[in-house]
Structures are given as C-alpha cells and as structure tokens.
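Friendly challenge for the regulars: who can give me the structure tokens for this chain first? No prize, just bragging rights.
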Amino acid sequence: MEKAPGSLSVGGSCPQKTAEILSSQYGINLFLAGLVLTFAWAVHAVGISKSHLLSYLITLMLIQLLWMLWYLCRSCTQRRLIREKDTHAGARWLKCGITLFAVITLILDSFKIGYYVDFSNCLSAAEGIFPVTHAIHTILQVYFLWCHAKDIIQSFKTLERFGVIHSVFTNLLLWTNGVLTESKHQLNEHKERLITLGFGNITMVLDDHTPQCNCTTTTLCSIFSQGIYYLYPFNIEYHILASTMLYVLWKNIGRKVEHHQQHKTPFKFHGITVGMIFGLIVLISTIAKVVVYLIQIGRSKNKSELALTMFYLHAISVLALMCTAGIVALLIYRLEDRSLDNSKNPARKLDAELLVGTAAGSWLLSWGSILAIICAQAHPKYTWYNLPYSILVIVEKYIQNLFIIESIHRKEEKVNDDIKTLRIVTISRGSTLSLTPAYKEIYNGRAACDDGELPYLLSGSVCAREDPGAKEAASQANCPVMHSAPEFPFYSRNSVTNNKRRILKNIAAFLFLCNLSLWIPPAFGCRPEYDNGLEEIVFGFEPWIIVVNLAMPFSIFYRMHSAASLFEVNCKT
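First reply, four minutes later:
Bragging rights claimed.
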C-alpha cells in the first residue's frame, strides 16, 4: 500500500537510509568497473578491445531504458494521483539546454552510424550497435527528464533509488568515454604541433585507433571522421547535464517538501542592454580568436608563437573585465542588508558544490603553469603572458564562485509596507467601488490622513473620515492631499534599489556571455596548456599530459555550469 507523501514514519527511515547507502555503493562500483575498462582500452591492455568497452556501455544503457520504460508506464497508470514536485529542480531553461545538446548528440550518433557503414569490413558489431542504442537512449532520457525531473518519488523508493543511481553513473561513464575519445584526438594533434614549436626532444608516439581497412566512400569517411570530433563537446555537456539532473532526482526520493508558493522568474532582456552588448563583443571576438588560433597553430614556429600570444592577451583582457564586474557585484551585495536562504534544497546545494569542485580543474592547471614558469630555465617571450593569465584564472573563479553562490542563496526581496496596494472602499449612492490608487498617492494619503482618516481615490486624491455622517459630504468635496516630508527620501531609496538591481542584472548577463565565450576555446581544441610546451619540459611530457587530460574536462564543464547558474541569477535578480 502506498503511503501519502511526507508520511514516512520514524521506524521506516532506517531501511530507506540503508537503501540510499546501498544504491550509492552500487553506482560507485558500476562506475569504477567501467572506468577500469575504459583505462584498459586507452592504454591498449592485452585482451581488452574497444568492443568490450562498448558492450559494457550498451548493457548499462539497455538496463536504464528498461527502468525508464517501467517508470513511465507506472506514472501513466497513476497520472490521476497528486504527486509532490520539487519546484527548484529541472528548470525550463535547463531542459531546453539539455534538449539542444541532445539534438546535436543525435547528429553525432548518425555520423557514427555512417562511419561504421563505411568501415563495416573491419569494425566490430558493437561499434554499429552502440550509436543506435545511444540514440534511442538519448531520445527516451530527454523525454523522461522533461516529464519527471521535478518528481519527488514516494513509492517503490528502494527500487527507484537503484534505478536512478544506475542512470546517473551510466551517464557519467558515457561522459567519460566521450572525454577520453575527444582527448585522444586532441593529443594526437597536439603532438604534431609541438614539433613545429621546436620541441623535438619530446618523444612523439601517436595513439592510433583508426580502422585497419579502406573506406568504401573516401569523401564521406573524411566528413564523418572530422565531424565527429567537432560534435563531441556537445555530447560531453549533454551527459554531464543529464547526470546532474538525475542526481537531484535521486536526492529527492522520499524527501519531505515544505509547501510554499514558488514564484516564476522568466528571463527578460529589458534593462540588460549594456551587459549584453559587452558580452556579445567578448563572444564575437572569442570566436574570431579561436578561428585564427586553429588556423595558425602548428603551421610554423613563428605563427604558433603569435597565435599563443594572441590567445593570452585576449584571455587576460576578458578575465580582468570579469574580475572587475564580479567585484562590483559583491560590493553591491555588501551594501545591502539581506539574509540568505538556508533551507534544504538539493538542486541549489549541488550547483554550489559543482562550481567549487569543477573549478579545481582550472586551478590545478594554473598552478602547474605558474610553477613551470618559475622553474623553467629558458623562457620564450610568449610564455611570460602565461603568468598573468594563470593568476587571473585563479582569482576570477574565486570571485565568480562567491558571486554566484551568494546570489542563488539570497532570499527574494519583500515588498515594502509603504508601497503595498491598498483596497479602498467608498460608498456612493449605495454602490461599493474598489479602487487601487497609485503608490505615490497612497503613501501621501497615509501621511496626510490621520485620526481615523481613510484615504481613497475618486476623481483625484480625496480624504474622508470614518464618521458615517460625513461620508456623503466627503464624496462631494475634494480634500487635497498634503505631501509628506518622507516622500522624497522614500522614492530616493526606491530609485537606488532599482539601480542596484539593474547593475546586478547587467553584470550577470555580461558574465553569462563571457563564460560561454571561455567555454568555446577549450571545447573546440584551442588549448594553450597543450601547445606552449613549457610545462612538458618542466614536468615531463607524459605526466603533464595526464594532468591536462584529467583537469581539462572539469575546466570545460565549469564554464558551461557557470553560464547556466548565471542565467538563473539573472532571472532571479
């Protein structure tokens, strides 16, 4: 028998906590097994091929598909029941974002299918089944998240915990697989670029996973093989977003929710023109920089050095502007006296943890670069720009994290008692009229009408006493409203508050576009951590490449997650 939402007894909390621990351990072991298999394939372990890894991932996706179908069928049969919802989870803009990434992921799957058809003579069947299964998995998962991301599951809780956590770690493994495949491609290109920069003393062994047979259609094979790697960044973001949304769903299982009205905060372009203009300038210049960088890097030593110098100068300018904007926003917060909302909210807690956790990836790379610059014996001119760039990366994330976390925890501003709309009732010829006067007239009316006077508006500002005998006379004679002394300070304070809010919205819009801009270069192969060569000399080629390959995915995700959080801040401000 199903229990009503929120009616979980004290005695039943122990089994549910046990189920939560068991399901989390199941998910971690599922992930670790896949991680070891992925690592074994990456290092060409004896007896481990790509087909083994893909078979494992296909099995996980099929299990998740069965669970999602079961959940959807059960929800359909119980659609008349009133279900608890977490209003903070699964925001519409987040669903739209994951849908966009999912559509591009489906294009990626179609490219993989075409690639398999062209090389079918020497590829395993798993490489053809995987993109088909992944496409079906993507479609059903996006539909599931659109319909049920806000659910607070109160029935079959033990089973659902295992189903949801299985889905979380399945997406994390698919994310890991995408990151590894894309990183191996970037590493091969990086090794070729280092030769042009003059670092010939580094051992160059290309990691080749290309099929050992001829393509049936050369032109199509080239399009598919090159197009796949340009689409991988979107696939990577899709899976990490899906795993975070599913994790919030898992944390909400059996949760008791306080019932309160959740105000919708739609995004509006009004009042953020300045922030949007500067942000778009940064975005357009970043796209141009990436195009020039990818064209110039690796062509010759001189062109590569110019490309790296251009990258660092542009990044230093953008990061300096972002630091300044963040400091201004924090100063505005210090001038305001508003408390923070410390209520339990899994989605908000996860956002804050992801911001700090994924920022560690960039901090690790930055500290590595700083140490390399200090310890290196020879310093090409372009490497000195890496020092202020690395310092600004650390400082900018400090400031931005503080701004975002404080913004999402701030309580919504309450309406001042002095500007509440009053309901005015007047009696005229036996009829009752409800009038809503302007804020200014209400405020002045309150100041002018004392000793039991009731302010109301009728053909101007009129004051009438509560004396029944005076009501009719008062309805025919107008009493001018006296302007009170506090009128101008009140409106001055209100104007200052509106200006602060407008500045904060512009800062949030500017930082939103800047984070999107800073996501583009590393996501599409513009990675100076690979290309400047200084770190490889100090730390050694293999150790530094391992550090970059581990830290870079978190750095890329940080920018996209920050952009999503700043979009929410803009809506909330």
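The first helix runs from residue 13 to 42. The CA atoms of residues 23 and 161 lie 6 Å apart. Your move, everyone else.
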